[in-house]
Design a protein that fits this description.
The complex is a heterodimer of chains A (427) and B (181). Chain A is an all-alpha fold. Helices cover 77% and strands 0% of the residues of chain A. Chain A starts with a helix and ends with a helix. The chains are: A mainly alpha (427), B alpha/beta (181).
């Protein structure tokens, strides 16, 4: 028997989901309105809000956003983009490989949207210089960003949410997800190359001029504030090192990020008003709203009922790994992976009564992060790159993206789920 | 049915906000514009010289060597206004001495340059002109595809003002690429 509370919670959840998918109104507004309805109708009592509001996720995101905002003003990311372009020397194959590797690496430690926002203008510029079709390069960048984000606890919001909810450490992600991401990255570059190899040829009669033009870029010119640049590099490196030891230090990842942000603010003398104003508050409120809406599903028992129903069909961890990874992948290709992960987390927790959830978290991370590669609207990085391409007069249609994206999604999730299955379930 | 481009545009605006414009602005400093990407076809080069152009560095000859089919015009300018000022204040004799001294200097500089340009195998012509340094260059610049000019041309420079005001004026007025050395 479904209670009135459950009906309201499910209606709010479905309505907000539909609004997020259609993007008729801003996703943050949709989540906030939904959360307000839940709170006004007392579906989740006020004193239980802190239980559902995952501060580990929200504060980790806020800390890393602050660090990135301060570092951005030094010209660090433009420096990386110019350096990568120069290392490629105008060779299309090297551009494809280097930009994919650098994008994956940066995305593993910083948020994917910032990474692609900062690297894409350079990629478009050099593909124009090389006079080649920019689409395969842009697609490779998107896929690399999503794959890189899969590798670490801080790489992609679903991983932050999973890590915080399941108490998984940075090193747990490095040992479980980084090897999968590493293999998936090279599989992806290989697929892109095979799909677009005819577009990888620069005009040989202009190769010298192209190289000269790209090599004339000076990465040193990108550095707006040399002192801030050095301090940003040192602090980002220190934060990453601290993440590797956070479990041994007994510190939450959010504490590491906030401490790093505080030290960088103090050391750099950057204006806190400016640095904090640039924090993506809309994103943080979006997370907050979602946590409350999903909390209403837990509070009313809807999640437990769904978990019981699922356990009627899924009896072993192996089945659960395959189901969660593939269901998450196809769902994340269609709906935003953040609300999807927020919904799946309590579901997996509820399944913990019948089986070990440890491999299931990796299956969720794999599906939620890599599923975003499936369609142009599957992940924020996809939307940003396709949107930037439109603004620059480069058309990447839904079909263009889907044709390559689905192949990449199936290949990478297939490889990843096979590795998780072999590791935790065995033959 | 939601139109894909509209959906992407809406989503892009919601996710990226104004950040994209800020980033593009930062990149503008490094990227060449569409106009700059087109390598100009240089067939003639004007090189104005004067008493402040004491040495012409090797980099200028390297730049010239990139245009083997271009025609060079070397012009040594003697300042008409300075000559008139000397005549009005010190007399005709001193004005004549000034002019002779300037012509000797012109001969020396042009001779040194002639040898280097000959080594490059580039066609050239030379002239010594009595006139206003900026007005003359501005009046003939349109006949040439590029100008190569010293930062000290026309007047002394200082530590705080490393480009002479005459050069500033020329760069502002001529609609041709200018190489400063």
């Amino acid at each position: 028997m479904i209670s009135t509370g459950e009906i309201i919670a499910l209606s709010v959840f479905s309505g907000v989901y539909a609004l997020i998918m259609s993007e008729k109104i801003h996703r943050t507004v949709a989540a906030m309105v939904g959360a307000s309805v839940i709170m006004v109708l007392n579906i989740v009592p006020w004193d239980k809000i802190p239980k559902y509001l995952d501060l580990g996720t929200i504060l980790l995101l806020a800390g890393m956003m602050t660090v990135v905002n301060i570092a951005r003003d030094s010209g660090l990311f433009e420096y990386i983009a110019i350096k990568t372009a120069k290392l490629s020397k105008g060779d299309p194959m090297k551009v494809l490989l280097l930009f994919s590797v650098i994008t994956a690496l940066v995305s593993a430690f910083l948020d994917n949207v910032t990474t692609v926002l900062l690297l894409t203008p350079m990629l478009i510029y050099i593909t124009r210089q090389m006079d080649v079709n920019p689409v395969p390069f842009l697609l490779a960048e998107v896929f690399a960003s999503n794959i890189g984000g899969t590798a670490t606890l801080i790489g992609d919001p679903p991983n932050i949410m999973i890590g915080s909810a399941a108490g998984l450490s940075f090193n747990d992600f490095i040992t479980n997800m980084a090897p999968i991401a590493f293999l998936d990255l090279f599989v992806t570059v290989g697929i892109i190359y095979l799909a677009y190899r005819s577009a990888m040829n620069a005009h040989s009669n202009r190769s010298e001029a192209i190289t000269r033009s790209i090599m004339s870029l000076n990465e040193e010119d990108a550095i707006k504030d040399r002192v801030l640049f050095r301090k940003s590099v040192v602090m980002i490196a220190a934060i990453i090192v601290a993440f590797f030891f956070h479990d041994r230090l007994g510190l939450q990842p959010a504490v590491i990020a906030l401490t790093g942000a505080s030290i960088l603010l103090l050391w750099s003398g950057a204006s806190p008003e400016y640095a904090l104003e640039k924090v993506e508050w809309a994103t943080l409120f979006f997370f907050g709203g979602l946590f409350i809406i999903v909390g209403s599903l837990v509070e009313t028992g809807a999640i437990d009922q769904l978990a019981d129903w699922m356990l009627g069909y899924v009896h072993t961890e192996g089945q659960a790994v395959l189901l969660i990874s593939w269901f998450s992948a196809f769902s994340s290709a269609i709906v935003d992976n953040i609300p999807f992960t927020a919904t799946m987390i309590p579901l997996i927790k509820a399944m913990g009564n019948s089986m070990s959830t440890y491999p299931l978290w990796w299956a969720l991370s794999l599906g939620a992060c890599l599923g975003g590669n499936g369609t142009a609207i599957g992940a924020s990085a996809n939307v940003v790159v396709v949107g930037m391409a439109y603004r620059e007069g480069i058309r990447i249609t839904f079909g263009d993206f889907l044709k390559v994206g689905m192949v990449i999604m199936v290949a990478t999730v297939g490889l990843g789920s096979a590795l998780i299955w072999l590791r935790y379930v065995g033959l | 049915m939601v139109k894909f481009t509209d959906l992407i545009t809406r989503k892009f605006q919601n996710i990226a906000g104004s950040r994209y414009e800020e980033i593009l602005k930062a990149y503008e400093e490094f990227f060449l514009t569409e106009e700059e990407m087109v390598i100009p076809d240089i067939k003639s080069i004007l090189i104005p010289l004067d008493r402040y152009t004491t040495t012409v560095p090797d980099e200028v000859y390297e730049t010239i060597s990139a245009y083997p089919n271009a025609r060079l015009q070397l012009v040594y300018m003697i300042d008409e206004n300075v000559c008139r000022l000397i005549r009005d204040t010190l007399g005709e004799e001193d004005a004549k001495k000034f002019r002779e001294k300037e012509e000797r200097r012109a001969s020396e500089i042009l001779s040194r340059m002639r040898d280097r340009i000959r080594e490059l195998g580039i066609a050239w012509a030379e002239d010594t002109v009595f006139g206003d340094k900026s007005e003359y260059v501005e009046s003939i610049a349109g006949e040439y595809d590029m100008l190569i000019i010293s930062k000290h041309y026309g007047s002394e420079t200082t530590r705080t003002h490393t480009v002479s005001p005459v050069v500033f004026r020329i760069v502002q007025y001529v609609g041709r690429p200018v190489v400063l050395y």
